[in-house]
């Protein structure tokens, strides 16, 4: 066994009602001019945070959208400067956290994250920015949130479809963490436990969105998934999701959910041990088939066609996905990628 584990994780405050600790957490960072960042239409979350922080709120920015387009990032940076912000508070899912990271990348302001979906960005130093139709991603410790507050009560109104898709996105972090070249026993334990917690809780949430036990367990899984994503390298699944999202404007979490069984099938032979752990965590015999079944049980989209991909664009997507080398257990070839995309486009059943 050989590994290097260099981890610096955010402070995590976890549990129902933990949003109440927001003022105390801001005191710990000694900040007084806070810019609240989120997505449009989530005013109840903004009001909740603003009510707790009082005159420490220096401004709000509610224009965050998926994939962080450069123009939105620029407006957010101006909002932070106008507010003379000394801290960014993201309240929302990966889109809100993505914009907070884009601000931090140029201003170096600290981020406090109050996540309200399961996509996991709050735990990572990974940033993304979409410029001229291409999504760039990178790692920079300075954009990793300082503090993360997981309050499951804030997710009661998260629609079952968003809960399921963002939750399967988190499962995708765990699957790729299990076969990452820099995995270690701790990250592998987190990834397996994350898959188990997410799969079990999401099945309850899609039926009973206000079940506090399931909401709590899903955040527990999302925390582990985000911590896995933040600690090790991702492979083909994440590369394809970024290409399809950044260049073809597909929705991020749903794209992950469609692709996951097919990238797992592609890597099944090369990552046999990882796949047996995935199957064990899902209580199935075969990882790709169990992932496919999980998607159907949760009602996530089954095909790329369903979420707006055009068949004529599959070739270009395959070209873009092979442009730069990245770690993946099975060799990455253009033909291989095209076959994944074709199967995912059709939503071909796996059994
Ligand atoms: P999202 O943040 O776009 O949210 C999806 C929808 O749910 C939005 O309409 C939002 O307003 C709504 N919503 C959020 N919280 C809600 C709540 N509590 N109640 C009701 N509605 C709510 O979705 P996401 O999947 O979390 O984030 C996707 C983005 O995150 C992508 O840009 C992706 O690249 C990024 N991401 C980044 C990382 C990373 O480590 N950098 C990891 C995962 C995802």
Structure description:
By secondary structure, this protein is α/β, with parallel strands linked by helices. It contains 13 helices and eight strands. The protein has helices at residues 22-29, 43-53, 70-82, 94-107, 160-178, 185-205, 212-231, 236-248, 252-267, 272-282, 287-298, 314-321, 334-346, and strands at 11-14, 34-39, 57-64, 87-92, 111-115, 126-131, 134-139, 147-150. It has a six-stranded parallel β-sheet with strand order 1-8-5-4-2-3, sandwiched between helices. Strands 6-7 form a two-stranded antiparallel sheet. The longest helix is centred in the middle third of the chain and has 21 residues, at 185-205. It binds nicotinamide-adenine-dinucleotide. The site of nicotinamide-adenine-dinucleotide has 29 residues, from helix 4, strand 6, helix 5 and helix 9.
Q: Please state the overall shape, judged from the principal axes of the Cα atoms.
A: globular
Radius of gyration in whole Å, from Cα?
19 Å
Strand content: 5-15%
Terminal residue distance: 34 Å
What class do helices, strands and sheet pairing give?
A: alpha/beta
Compute the number of strand runs.
8
Give the helix proportion (percent range): 40-55%
Summarize model confidence as the mean pLDDT: 96
Name the ligand types: nicotinamide-adenine-dinucleotide
Number of helices: 13
Strand order of the largest sheet: 1-8-5-4-2-3
Task: Give keywords.
single chain; 351 residues; alpha/beta; 6-stranded parallel beta sheet; globular; binds nicotinamide-adenine-dinucleotide
């Amino acid at each position: 066994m050989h590994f290097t584990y260099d981890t610096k994780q955010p402070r995590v405050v976890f549990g129902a009602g933990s949003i109440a600790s927001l003022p105390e957490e801001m005191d710990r960072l000694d900040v007084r001019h806070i810019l609240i960042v989120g997505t449009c239409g989530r005013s109840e979350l903004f009001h909740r945070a603003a009510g707790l922080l009082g005159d420490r709120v220096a401004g709000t920015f509610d224009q965050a959208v998926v994939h962080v387009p450069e123009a939105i990032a620029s407006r957010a940076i101006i909002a932070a400067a106008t507010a003379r912000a000394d801290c960014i508070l993201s309240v929302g899912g990966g889109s809100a956290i993505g914009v907070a990271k884009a601000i931090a990348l140029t201003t170096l302001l600290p981020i406090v994250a109050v996540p309200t979906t399961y996509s996991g960005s709050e735990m990572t130093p990974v940033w993304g920015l979409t410029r001229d139709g291409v999504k760039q991603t990178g790692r920079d410790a300075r954009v990793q949130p300082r503090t993360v507050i997981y309050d499951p009560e804030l997710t009661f109104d998260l629609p079952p479809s968003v809960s399921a898709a963002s939750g399967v996105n988190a499962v995708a972090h765990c699957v790729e963490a299990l076969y990452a070249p820099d995995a270690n026993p701790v990250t592998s334990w987190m990834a397996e436990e994350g898959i188990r917690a997410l799969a079990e809780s999401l099945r309850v949430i899609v039926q009973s969105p206000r079940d506090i036990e399931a909401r709590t367990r899903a955040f527990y899984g999302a925390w582990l998934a985000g911590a896995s994503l933040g600690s090790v390298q991702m492979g083909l699944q994440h590369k394809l999701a970024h290409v399809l999202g950044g260049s073809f404007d597909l929705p991020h979490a749903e794209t992950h959910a469609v692709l996951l069984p097919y990238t797992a099938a592609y890597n099944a032979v090369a990552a046999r041990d990882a796949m047996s752990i995935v199957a064990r965590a899902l209580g199935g015999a075969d990882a790709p088939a169990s992932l496919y079944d999980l998607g159907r049980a949760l009602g996530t989209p089954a095909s790329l066609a369903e979420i707006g991909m055009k068949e004529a664009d599959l070739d270009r997507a395959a070209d873009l996905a092979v442009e730069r080398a990245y770690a993946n257990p099975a060799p990455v070839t253009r033909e291989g990628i095209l076959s994944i995309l074709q199967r995912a486009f059709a939503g071909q059943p796996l059994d």
